[in-house]
Design brief:
Layout: H1 11-14, E1 17-20, H2 36-41, H3 43-49, E2 53-56, E3 60-61, E4 73-77, H4 84-96, E5 100-106, H5 115-122, E6 134-135, E7 146-147, E8 155-158, E9 163-166, H6 181-196, E10 201-205, E11 228-229, H7 231-234, H8 240-252, E12 258-262, H9 271-275, E13 284-286, H10 308-321, E14 329-330, H11 340-343, H12 351-363, E15 368-372, H13 393-404, H14 409-419, H15 456-461, H16 466-479, H17 481-485, E16 487-491, E17 498-505, E18 508-515, E19 521-522, E20 534-538, E21 547-548, E22 553-558
Parallel strand pairs: 1-2, 1-15, 2-5, 5-10, 7-11, 10-12, 12-13, 14-15
Antiparallel strand pairs: 3-4, 6-9, 8-9, 16-17, 17-18, 18-22, 19-21, 20-22
The structure holds 1-deoxynojirimycin.
1-deoxynojirimycin binds next to loops.
Keywords: Glycosidase, Hydrolase
EC number: 3.2.1.10
Pfam families: Alpha-amylase
């Protein structure tokens, strides 16, 4: 068919990736903070799980305003995490187990404590002044009414020079000026330096923010609001591809770096520019439509109506397009999002069943699957009791700003209960012992109280656990190239209750069929679904010929004739 393109076989397409949020993975020295030695101790577990690509959220030296996404030194490791020797050891030890590393490339901004920024702010005529984005105020106020991602103005006043600098995220994360070629050269040299260490590449943070609207226009703010979201003028702006293509040419391609772009704001039509096999800039792309469908874009703590039909439509749109262009990084969770079983499944009576169903649904799509730490044991959202238990800067600022505007605290807490990034950041639940085996000290963030029931040790013992189901999925994908390279087609597109698709490759066919609800669905009504294939995997032991039971997932295969 002309809407699909034969794609080259690549090791990273066949990989299974895992994301570690180092602060919450494993503490080895009792300070309550996860660290590199902790990760090294757990490599055998990752090997047992079956992954071969590891994305580490930032471990660089940082004042930790945004948990490491504010880098003070790209060539240093934060003391709390260990040393550069530990990092080298991690790369080597992972390598021995067939696991390659992706570092987090945070190139849109640095920390305000980075030497470049300190020099930049030191004087108006500093040689590094232009490395960041400085503007004089307007009528005694900020240069524009842009609002940063964590609330409040995107401009921070600097007393010393009497000018403002721009930050898309927190004021401690000043944006680098990508228009300046010296900045870009330094960043490429840094990429090179890390590639020399033997890593496979990078997850590329906030990369669609690097180009700003050169007019620096005033924006229209919603009634009652002083500011308007910066995304309109800083996300995927015209001209961004010149920067990205240069970075590919000068830094990524020569080193064969594997890249997964965090690319919010990229419309489907543009997927080819970002991840086409020949012309695209990156190797894989994360899109966010399926995890952000519950909130009003650019809104402040406002939910919108959504259902599982919207969830599957959001995913399938990109799946269908990826038959032609590019390669997706598949995910349900990461450190910026809540736990998938709590959001898309059922974290009550059907917890394990729905966690397995969701796993089967996304894992066998077209792309490279990423598992976020704890997802493989079905970790759930955490019952935070008060605002004092939250740690995330975005959540804390939101609470502060919205309650200051008069919104009831209960309302904002209700929002955070369903949306805070901290749900994905509670410590990894290793066992039923104190603090879930994460630390012998006091954890930096609360451990989810359900750790006695949900933990790795229990999951390892139980043949029927979520973890074992993930292991089976991984084995299945490793065994069958058709699950890697097969084309994707939607089935039961109109159903609100059932998610289904097929993968086809070289005469082989697979069908994945999932019940998104806690009710049984009659199979007779699913006329599009052929049920005569070999049943290869399910989250139920037996087979029911007539119904798809609550949260049931079925995977069928038809061999090549
Ligand atoms: C995206 C990261 O995933 C998030 O955690 C961070 O706050 C922002 N980029 C800013 O770096």
């Amino acid at each position: 068919m002309n809407d699909r393109k034969e794609q080259k076989q690549k090791w990273w397409k066949e990989s299974i990736a895992y994301q570690i949020y180092p602060r919450s993975f494993q503490d080895s020295n009792g300070d309550g903070i996860g660290d590199l030695r902790g990760i090294i101790e757990r490599l055998d577990y990752l090997q047992y799980l079956g992954i071969d690509l590891l994305w580490l959220s930032p471990v660089y030296d940082s004042p930790n305003d945004d948990n490491g996404y504010d880098i003070r030194d790209y060539h240093g490791i934060l003391d709390e995490y260990g040393t550069m020797e530990d990092m080298d050891e991690l790369i080597a030890e992972a390598g021995k187990r067939g696991i390659r590393l992706l570092m987090d490339l945070v190139a849109n901004h640095t920390s305000d404590e980075h030497a470049w920024f300190i020099e930049s702010r030191s004087a108006k005529d500093s040689p590094k002044r232009d490395w960041y984005i400085w503007r004089p105020g307007k009528d005694g106020k900020e240069p524009t009414n842009w609002e940063c991602g964590f609330g409040g103005s995107a401009w921070e006043y600097d007393e010393q020079s009497g000018e403002y600098f721009l930050h898309c995220f927190s004021p401690k994360q000043p944006d680098l000026n990508w228009e300046n070629p010296e900045v870009r050269r330094e960043l490429y040299a840094m990429i090179d330096w890390w590639m020399d260490k033997g890593i496979a590449g990078f997850r590329v943070d906030a990369i669609t923010y690097i180009k700003k609207n050169p007019q620096f226009p005033q924006l229209e703010a919603e009634p009652g609001r002083d500011f308007a979201p910066i995304e309109k003028v800083s996300l995927n702006q015209e001209g961004i591809l010149d920067f990205l293509r240069e970075m590919k040419r000068e830094a990524l391609e020569p080193r064969g770096a594997i890249t997964v772009a965090e690319a919010p704001g990229v419309p489907l039509e543009q997927i080819g520019d970002f991840v086409d096999e020949t012309d695209g800039v990156f190797t894989m792309l994360f899109q966010f439509n399926h995890v952000d469908l519950d909130i009003k874009p650019g809104g402040k703590a406002e939910f919108v109506d959504w259902d599982m039909k919207k969830f599957k439509d959001a995913l399938s749109l990109w799946q269908q397009e990826s038959n032609r262009h590019g390669w997706m990084g598949l995910f349900l969770e990461n450190h910026d999002h809540v736990r998938s079983v709590s959001k898309f499944g059922n974290d009550g009576p059907y917890r394990d069943l729905s966690a397995k169903m969701l796993a089967a649904y996304y894992f066998l799509m077209r792309g490279t699957p990423f598992i976020y730490q704890g997802q493989e044991i079905g970790m759930t959202n955490c019952p935070f009791d008060s605002i004092h238990e939250y740690r995330d800067i975005g959540s804390l600022n939101l609470f502060r700003d919205e309650t200051a505007k008069g919104r009831p605290a209960e309302e904002i807490l209700g929002y955070l209960g369903k949306r805070s990034r901290d749900h994905g950041r509670t410590p990894m639940q290793w066992n039923g012992e104190r603090e879930a085996g994460f630390t012998s000290g006091t954890p930096w963030i609360k451990v989810n109280p359900n750790y006695r029931e949900i933990n790795v040790a229990e999951n390892m013992k139980n043949e029927d656990s979520v973890l074992q189901f993930y292991r089976r999925l991984i084995a299945l994908r490793r065994e069958h190239r058709s699950l890697v390279y097969g084309y994707y087609d939607d089935l039961c597109k109109e159903s609100k209750e059932v998610g289904a698709y097929q993968r086809t490759y070289n005469g082989e066919r697979w069908v994945v069929l999932c019940n998104f609800t806690g009710r049984s669905v009659s199979l007779q009504q699913l006329t599009e679904i052929p049920l005569d294939g070999e049943r290869v995997l399910s989250n139920y032991e037996d087979r029911d010929q007539n119904t798809l039971r609550p949260y049931e997932a079925l995977v069928f295969r038809w061999r090549r004739k």
